[in-house]
């Protein structure tokens, strides 16, 4: 293999290749790998120069960002994905997508993994989307819903908008009080807990404290909040859908 004047570019049997030595002090991060070699599949210099520049940038990025870490938190994996030019997606989101969309989501990550003989656990978790989503209370979900939906009822006055939002806030407060659930993680909300809340509401109907329509509306508002807060993280857990 004959080295060309451009760094990492070599010519062998009229075909250009990319070859880059892994620095000795970084080989442990790549499970002992000594070099990266890629056939550029061209004998034309200007095409080879384009491809070698792409592989140079790719491996420079790897050297900069591939580090061993035991932190598999949601935030850590999102930051790792961002540093590698990837978008982190939880495995449930990929699993629920159409096949073509799922392949598009994980393709770049799988291509990156193919360059590593034995990638570090954090990188595997990043590509696989296996972080446990951070806890989210019902009130936090409401706050996120309000932030993301600031343009709702935009044509109404401030007072009228507040009246609309108060219905959601009252539903959340009632849920927290009835279920003693101020700190309940709705990402781990079970069917049993949802049915328990519904049963308590119906008990209040029997006691003539509230009307049946009030039960329906409370569940409807909570369903909207949970759907918005949970769907991006756990699309399989829209629990309040079953209680309507």
Main attributes of the structure:
244 residues, alpha+beta, 3 domains, 7% strand, elongated
Overview of the structural elements:
It is a single chain. With 244 residues, the protein is α+β, with helices and mostly antiparallel strands. The protein has three domains: 65 residues, no CATH class; 65 residues, no CATH class; 106 residues. It has nine helices and four strands; from the N terminus they run ββββααααααααα. A four-stranded antiparallel beta sheet has the order 1-2-3-4, covered by helices on one side. The longest helix is centred in the last third of the chain and has 22 residues. The chain starts with a strand and ends in a 14-residue tail after the last helix.
Shape, principal axes of CA atoms: elongated
Q: What's the arrangement of strands in the largest beta sheet?
A: 1-2-3-4
Mean of the pLDDT scores? 84
For the record, give the distance between the C-alpha atoms at the N and C termini, rounded to a whole number.
70 Å
Question: Which spans have pLDDT < 50 for at least 5 consecutive residues?
Answer: none
Question: What share of the residues does DSSP label as strand, in percent?
Answer: 5-15%
The tally of helices reads 9
Give the SSE order as H and E letters. Answer: EEEEHHHHHHHHH
Major sheet characteristics:
4 strands, antiparallel
Radius of gyration: 26 Å
Structural class: alpha+beta
Overall strand count: 4
- Helix content range: 40-55%
Counted up, domains total 3
